[in-house]
Amino acid sequence: MIYLDNGATSFPKPENVYKAHDYAFRNYGANPGRGGHSLARECARVIYNTREKIREFIKANSTREIIFTSNTTEALNQGILGVVSEGDHIIISKLEHNSVWRPVEWLRKNFKIELDFCEHDKEGYIILEDLERKIKKNTKLVVINHCSNVFGTMQNLSAIGQITRNKGVLLLVDGAQSLGFEEIDVQRMGIDMLAFAGHKGLLGPMGTGGLYVREDIILKPLKTGGTGSKSESPEVPAKGPERYESGTMNTAGIYALGAGVDFINEQGLDKIKSHKLNLLKRLIDGLEGIVTFYGPQSLENRGPVISFNLGDMASTDVAFILDTVYNIAVRAGLHCSPLAHKFFGTLEQGTIRVTPGIFNTIEEIDILIKAIKEIRES
Ligand SMILES: Cc1ncc(COP(=O)(O)O)c(C=O)c1O
After folding, report:
1. Which residues, 6+ apart, have CB-to-CB distance to 371 below 8 Å?
2. For the chain, which has fewer Cβ within 10 Å, the N-terminal or C-terminal residue?
3. How far is the CA of 9 from the centre of ligand 1 (A)?
4. How far does residue 155's CA lie from ligand 1's centre (Å)?
5. What pLDDT, in 10s, does the model give residues 81-106?
6. Is the CB of 197 within 6 Å of ligand 1?
7. Which domains does the chain have, with CATH numbers?
């Protein structure tokens, strides 16, 4: 199979990630933080090591700012539900994934939260003046999708972070599609919270993700329970990461996620980025005039995601043929982002989404191009 659905989850993983997962599953079998015996301590150290790798990767100040979750959705829910209280105002972009839109709509419905959407230009870039204008006295939080998982638009985080910092509101970035592709420096960019997937661009296993939270921000925990520390107290610890990580952790997954970060560091982000953009360029050049592409015209501020349609064919029909006849996996439909589809006018038809990974080749893209051309002619 030609797998071009890395936006959903990256596959295959690098060999060292498979090996790390297997090794950890066999050797780090005790429960980290639960019990003082040497294996439990070793497991806690394994988790700490990945925390440190992520800290370094996003240039956070302290490992205590890195919280592990089971996916980006959980991280976003923790970030959003953890800071907002009744009467607060939230601003989100119009390209948000349902893992942002649904929690904020839930808050709006149940807790009298005010919600606004910032405006975008026709390629999906946030109009910064509009964002600045919309921030008001009770604005608590701005949530921005760094790279649209449907259209690939990559927002200018430094400019957005400057606005939120000047206005004294919190900035939560959804980095699900961008981490492992674009460099992120949370301190320089003024990011207060960053939600990320372990299983996409960072090349770790499914069931891994995380949230960076600046150390002075104390969130209401999404869940409470056993943390292996302060067991005499009815409350979870006052500070992170233990505050947010109740319950047994995914030690093998987190260890393998660390191996994914090692792989990216060895390759270098520049190389990964230029490889994925080269594949997108090949696709755009090969299908120019044949399909309708959406989103940014230039590759410059685009993530590793592209969407298109073939005439008025249902995107799901095209994807079905690609899968069943050509053995090519792409995603079609609404990609869990109805807001983004509404913005680009593809709510009815959906889009065919191609998200190349590090192991895809130009030859595979050429096979996809040929397949699309044949589908058009059939
Ligand atoms: C932009 C964006 N945010 C959030 C998510 C949710 O990620 P997860 O599946 O890790 O919960 C996705 C998933 O594709 C996404 O693309």
Report:
1. 321, 322, 325, 326, 328
2. C
3. 9
4. 16
5. 999 999 999 999 999 999 999 999 99
6. yes
7. 2-10+268-377 (3.90.1150.10), 15-265 (3.40.640.10)
